[in-house]
Amino acid sequence: MIFYKTREEIERIRISSLLVGKTLAEVAKSIKPGVSTLDLDKVAEEFIKDHGAVPGFLGYGGFPNSLCTSVNEAVVHGIPNNKPLVNGDIVSIDCGVLLDEFYGDSAYTFEVGEVSKEVKKLLDVTKECLNLAIEQSCSGNRIGDIGYAVQNHAESNGYGVVRELVGHGLGRSLHEKPEVPNYGRRGRGHKMKPGLVLAIEPMINLGTKNVVQLSDGWTIVTKDKKPSAHFEHDVAIMQGKAEVLSSFEEIEKVLNNKS
Ligand code: MG
Ligand code: MG
To answer: Domain spanning 7-258: which CATH class is it, in words?
Structure first.
């Protein structure tokens, strides 16, 4: 069952999504070599609670923390731990909040210190994939148009597109229908209509598309151990252009101040 949202519900999802962006910006201030992902998780949990919201991932399906922190070859669903980040790492920080009955869900992959040119390009292309996906997200288009846009751009840069994990509908539940794969064929899949809210989240690997799950039961890593990048926005399907409900603006303000 697909839930289409009213204007009022979309505005509530926007507020949740923007709180996720502000949380990621707060976390961004602390990201540097020597800091652990568990330290970052504490920052996020406190910030979310201070803003009257509930960490959306904490306890979700038994997940132990408020953030998914996925370092280097980890794609998604990494569990925060005590290991210090080191110069040259990348870390995907995925965050969800529940506020006023609606979820927000957004992710950003951060550089720790100075990363290689090769990895910087992976981050740029993954973000471009997300933007191309958002361009395809409009009433009358199909879910396959989104997947095609991501896959085509990633693969034409020589990267692997993860198949096992996908974007999703978003609302009163963190994961709603439909699934939003990052691969696909134009003109195929569910036809989008106004009121549909999607979390679009390309997961792009520097190497092959293949992934495996670690024995912790959560962390997904690339099979070839090469780095993977992940960015996620929440969008509302409208007549014409999608409305992006989440924002990287606060995050990028922090990053620009750092550099
Ligand atoms: Mg997410
Ligand atoms: Mg998501």
So the answer is: alpha beta
